[in-house]
Amino acid sequence: MISLSWLLSMILFSISMSGTPGPNNVMLTASGALYGYRRTLPHILGILFGCFVLFTLIALGLGVVFQRYPLIQQGLRVIGALYLLYLAWKIASAPPPELAAREGARPLTFWQAAAFQFANPKAWVMGLALIAGFLPDEGMLWINAMLLSALMEVVAFPCISFWACFGVAIGRWLTTPRAWRVFNGIMGAMTAACVGFIVT
To answer: What is the pLDDT of residues 123-145, one digit of tens each?
Structure first.
């Protein structure tokens, strides 16, 4: 039986984990500034879907597999670090919106964002803490896992959308190509800095 205290604790946990800075939110800020919220929405939904699948699989035993076979975890860390550096370079070298439109630049796709969650260290920490702290003991495991993961993503949606909207607001202040280059460079550097969370 789910209690009100359990629900409030779970919501507060979800807000604190999904609303704080990390690779996803840094990239959403950059994407919101460059492409706007509407074009960033598939990126947002991809994050939510990827985390939903990851958290559900952790509850069903994927976390145990990683504990037993650390080489798999290490391999994902390397892949995640390299991919994050690639994304950092793409962000840092992105042209201003007018040039981006002419050059066919586009934000991260739904499936790219979803797949990245499996190499995102913050997503793993969130998933492991979520399952360890909030997965109900009673009832069918797979149903509980899916419902808990879905609830987490419902709470996370406005939290990560905030970062994209924050980027949109920043983008309105960037009126020159030089300002855009500085902003993109800073966002790229912040994305690259997130590699530290992966390799440590």
So the answer is: 888 888 888 888 888 878 889 99
Widest CA span of the chain, in angstroms? 58
Picking from 35, 23, 29, 36, the residue whose alpha carbon sits closest to that of residue 124 is 23
- pTM equals 0.85
Total structural domains within the chain = 1
Q: Domain containing 55: what range? A: 23-199
Answer whether residue 98 is part of any domain. yes
Q: Which of 53-62, 97-106, 121-130 has the lowest mean pLDDT?
A: 97-106
